[in-house]
Write a structure and sequence with these properties.
The protein is an all-alpha fold. It contains four helices and no strands.
Amino acid sequence: TSYATTSWVFSICGFCLGAFMSLGGALHAHLGLRATTLLGGWTLSLGVWLSSWTVQQGLWPFVCTYSVMLGLGVGIAYTAPIKCLMGWLPERKGLATGLV
């Protein structure tokens, strides 16, 4: 497998992270910050654990478990610290987002 082929793994992961951040924001209203962070962490951990098995199965199963599940988990969990810090620094929301 070439570098050009495997570079898609992190590209898809970055796309999924951004795409699923809106889902994380919506889950905050229903589940709260702690439960959303735990759900994101569990999804992220499950994706990495499954990737240890799917890397032996081929590239596309690995992309599905690592890129999509890791991106989903990080996207969900990443919004909690942003929301907390923006609440602590309401006058400087841009700085709060940049610090996270």
